[in-house]
Amino acid sequence: MAKGYDYKVKAWLLLAGTSTEAFTLISQYRDIGQLVSSMLKKIPLSQVCMGMYVHKFCGSWLEHPFWTSKLLIEDSATLAKIRQSSVNELIIDLARGCDVAPHHPAAPIESVALGKDAEVGADNSQAKTPVITSSFKDEVRQAREIFRSGKEAVVSMFADARMGRTLETAGLNELLDEMSASVSRNSHALISVARIKSKDEYTYLHSVAVAALMIGMARQLQLDEEATRQAGLAGLLHDLGKALTPEDILNKPGKLTEDEFAVMREHPVMGYQLLQSWTDVPEAVLDVCLHHHEKFDGTGYPQQQAGAQISLLARIGAICDVYDAITSNRPYKAGWDPAISVSRMVAWKGHFDPELLRIFVRMLGIYPVGSLVKLTSKQLAVVIEQNPESLLKPKVEVFYSITLRQKIATRTLDLSDTRVKEQIVSREDPEQWNFQQLEKIWLPE
Prior knowledge:
- InterPro entries: DUF3391, HD/PDEase_dom, HD_domain, HD_GYP_dom, HDIG_dom.
- It comes from Halopseudomonas salina.
- Residues 203-326 form the HD domain.
- This is Phosphodiesterase.
- Helix 6 (173-185) crosses helix 8 and helix 13 crosses helix 14.
- A hairpin with a 3-residue loop joins strand 5 and strand 6.
- This protein is an alpha+beta fold.
- It has helices at 6-13, 20-26, 32-38, 76-84, 136-163, 173-185, 189-194, 202-220, 225-237, 247-250, 258-264, 267-276, 283-291, 312-327, 338-347, 354-364, 439-442, and strands at residues 40-44, 53-57, 71-72, 89-93, 113-114, 118-119, 372-375, 379-385, 395-401, 406-414, 424-427.
- It folds into three domains: 3-112, no CATH class; 136-364, Hypothetical protein af1432; 372-442.
- The longest helix has 28 residues, at 136-163.
- The chain starts with 5 loop residues before the first helix and ends with a helix.
- It is globular.
């Protein structure tokens, strides 16, 4: 560390003690707040280097490529991501990393644990093989086939549950590996296709969709391969208790009565009890089945768990379960537009883990594929592909003129292209415009 900061760091490390040396050093500052702030230094992007500890990225969190604003730059890949981002300035913590001059790396960043074996951000480079990427259009074809297989698996599982038969869950590993590989090749294709389902398919495809979303989140959090597979399995099995719910309640086209809703609320416990009798179901998966309807503020069910009492996978499951539910066509309502759904979920204070929700939004994009948006030219467009460098500038398909009040010849615009002057000015509700089956615009044949 730069010599000029040695005494400040030493004082900071001694704050918890009562030594004379600590108080002597601290007395050079008017208060502890001044001492803490002295450890923070704003630097331009051009000065960032290995060994620095980033305290904060200046500007919107949407424009930097990480799920957290605090991180140690301990490898070249992390450094490259920061330099390639649209962030202009960042604040570094001199007590936890080096100054502008190079310095020895600080201690590793504390990671979020999933059980005792898997960690967020764990280095699994030796276990990973190179991943081949694919375009959104090409991956959609693979995604459709995966969903067909996934639906068959879930239908079979529901039938086994209703007949009292047990299932060897290890047989699902191939499906989960295919889903994980699809997300790795193109992070948006499988997740986008997951939203397209008829109301008659909802019960079964919902489980496949939640599995895809949970695998996507596991990838965002850099969970290891085993933890990622558990996340996908939890998505496939989280609603299995509904196999024991009366079908007249499960598929009721109208609002449930209080008594019917009480019966519906029993499915997490029934699913948990059912899965306990099945073979090789991991404890983390059982936990998601039981707790995916808990809320971060403790008002959920069945056990009113709150905050960190809810496991990491169950908190992820709660987000993925709700998003797919509100964006899908169901027996009693049409699905909401994906961008509007994200906006409403963010507004539901206390429902979700706010940090995980932020990561979820980054995964989908502020304007997820399929969102209807209004452009500065007073034209409407559908988002057809994300731009990983800027969530606010996706690729869109323009198809409607508000001024002319009619559909126009479609054209594709990449809003991240500096030659394109168009910008998104608002999200739009397809129902208010009486648009139906917008997926025909963005979903390749």
